[in-house]
Amino acid sequence: MDAPTETDVAHVAAAIGDPSRAKVLLALAGGGALPAGALAAEAGVSNSTISGHLAKLLDARLLTVELDGRHRYYRLATTDVARALEQLALIARPLPVRSLNADTRAKALWRARLCYDHLAGRLGVAVMSALQEQDILAAERTVQSGGATDPDAGAAATDLVYVLTLHGRRELTAFGVETDRLPRRRASVRYCVDWAEQRHHLAGALGAALTARLFALEWLRHGKYRRVVHLTDAGRDGLATTFGVPVDRIG
């Protein structure tokens, strides 16, 4: 077996680093696929210019392309790309708000949005917190392999993981989330550090399945802006009653 080599971080960073390409990636960060024309509009460039940007993103393996007859649709290559964008947002400077529309969009993204296929924003964080309070998810700390020492903590470094409890499996199954049929190709329970709230929201196959169920119940609906979602009246009542989510504090 060949020894692993270092990864070409600079190549990926350069692909993301162009403002137009960053807008393309963010437009696709809510899941789904879009044609080049729609991505050109999102990036604010011409249809002739967008092809070069898409070629660079494909070369960096950040996007994949799907053919539907004569049409080509682009999507993020993996959920890890969406996670990487969310993590970059944690250390990025806020964009200046120069219009009422930009301010409205920014506030909507902060309240509730999709991080690829799972719920994020203030609402996503509130749901994650409620799932722990209801003993549906339990947080555990595991020592990193090799017992590595964290120079900041001065002790063995640990990772935080969340596990679905037996009680949680029953509750979510009764809610309509088939926890025993989550796709095996993907980690069941993961989390993202939400850039807007600096706290965790639920990711992984379970996060995707729960979000899909909220849409199926019409507790969530898509908003005017890409990635933005809105809680319906039924969703406010349902999340409060079912999981104890304090929706009155979501805004």
Percentage beta strand: 15-25%
Oligomer: single chain
Uncertain segments of ≥5 residues (pLDDT<50)? 147-158
Number of helices: 10
Radius of gyration: 20 Å
Number of strand segments:
13
What class, by secondary structure content?
A: alpha+beta
Mean pLDDT: 89
User: Describe the biggest sheet?
Assistant: 3 strands, antiparallel
- Percentage of residues in helical conformation: 40-55%
First-residue to last-residue Cα separation: 54 Å
SSE ordering: HHEHHEEHHEEHEEEEHEEHEEH
Shape: globular
Going across the biggest sheet, name each strand in turn.
1-3-2
Topology:
Blueprint: H1 9-17, H2 19-27, E1 34-35, H3 36-43, H4 47-59, E2 63-68, E3 71-76, H5 79-91, H6 100-111, E4 113-115, E5 118-120, H7 121-133, E6 137-143, E7 149-150, E8 155-156, E9 158-164, H8 166-175, E10 190-193, E11 200-203, H9 204-216, E12 220-222, E13 229-231, H10 233-243
Antiparallel strand pairs: 1-3, 2-3, 4-5, 6-9, 7-8, 10-11, 12-13
Helix pairs in contact: 2-3, 3-4
